[in-house]
Amino acid sequence: MIGQVVELLAARGLSVAPPCFRTSDGYEVERVFTLHRHLWAIEVKRTSNPSQADFARFNAAADLIAADRRVLVAQVNKTAFNGWSGVASLPGLLKLLTKEVA
User: Hey, what CATH topology would domain 2-101 get?
Assistant: First the structure.
């Protein structure tokens, strides 16, 4: 799934090797990368209804790395992104990133 994100960015000439971030107390962000001076945090949940606890834990982990772009990817029908944080499907995330690299 995240491989498509890396391919999209690579096709636009951007070198992205997205690492994950994990702490010893269980906080994690699945993919972290810098794109146009913004630190992106991407977390994938295999649900169509991410909970408030999912968002809270993801945001706490993203805070630890000072990510200024945060997207929780889930099986949702509509992207909700306020310019720095939100939820999106994989196609929605790809659209967000396409706008960012345009």
Answer: Trna Endonuclease; Chain: A, domain 1 (3.40.1350)
- State residue 15's pLDDT score: 60
Three state DSSP letters for the chain = CHHHHHHHHHHCCCCCCCCCEECCCCCEECEEEEECCEEEEEEECCCCCCCHHHHHHHHHHHHHCCCCEEEEECCCCCCEECCCEEEECHHHHHHHHHHHHC
Domain ranges of the chain: 2-101
Q: Which has more pLDDT, 25 or 3?
A: 25
